[in-house]
Amino acid sequence: MVPRMLGMATKVVSDYGKVLSLVEPGVYGLPESLLPHARESIRFAILTLLRELGTEHPEVKEGLRQGYVYLAQFVGDDEASVVKSGQASLTDSTVDDGNTEPAMRIINRIKLDMERAVEEMSDFL
Q1: pLDDT tens per residue across all 125 residues of the chain
Q2: Residue 46: which residues within 8 A CB-CB, separation 6 or more?
Q3: Which of 15, 27, 55, 108 shows a CA-CA span of 20 to 30 A to 81?
């Protein structure tokens, strides 16, 4: 692989890692605007590094796999605000189905996307 491409992939993943270190784990529907690069660029960078690592550095590979799966948590900013508002209405004493149902649909899609990503990562175990 071209060293320059490997260097770019490393930078993209590093930038993404910095964002992940700032977000609360387990939160669904993070705004995509938090991502330092386009989702596809991050995905490509992670896959590039996973292929390059081969069988070495299992702990680094595990972190890359987790980051790949966690990328599904990031959704369009509009959807992120729907999820946030739905979650807020669940924590209030007044549950508003008009807010919670659309939020639950988005969360369910995120969970499916995460499951798909886990399956994709099984090639790199």
Answers
A1: 577 889 999 999 999 999 999 998 878 899 999 999 999 999 999 999 999 987 888 999 999 999 999 999 999 999 999 999 888 776 666 666 677 889 999 999 999 999 999 999 998 87
A2: 9, 13, 64, 67, 68, 71
A3: 15
How far is residue 78 from each of residues 50, 81, 84, 85, 125, measured CA to CA in Å? 32, 5, 10, 11, 35
Question: Token pair for residue 22?
Answer: 């700032």
Structure tokens belonging to residue 20 = 């992940």
Task: Match 């702990």 to its residue by tokens.
Answer: 59
Domain that holds residue 86: 3-124
Domains: count for the chain: 1
